[in-house]
Amino acid sequence: MMDRVLAGGRERRKALQAAEAVSADIHSLGRYYLSAFENEKSAVMIERERMAVPIPALTRIAQTELRHITSETERNPRELTRLVRSLPPDVRQEFAFISKALDAYASELGRLERCAEK
To answer: CA-to-CA distance for 16 and 2, rounded, in angstroms?
Structure first.
């Protein structure tokens, strides 16, 4: 290509025209890539917004109780019911609230997976 650009006359004109065409093609491909990237990025952001289900954090008391229940049930799984019943009402309510939020999140994920399969 460089030999043709350095040459004279008709060969040089053809080489310059080819260089301009290649430059336009590269510029066009760059615009296409940018457009495709922006569309994909937008689709991912929309999907993330649809999946956004607020999941609250546990309080320190609830975290401590959860660690206690987990360690006790690892030793003796039959004690789970007794341990849950012995929880303070506010901690049980907190666990129920988080459980509902996680169920909603799992339900949303399942719905999105079914939509993706179609």
So the answer is: 10
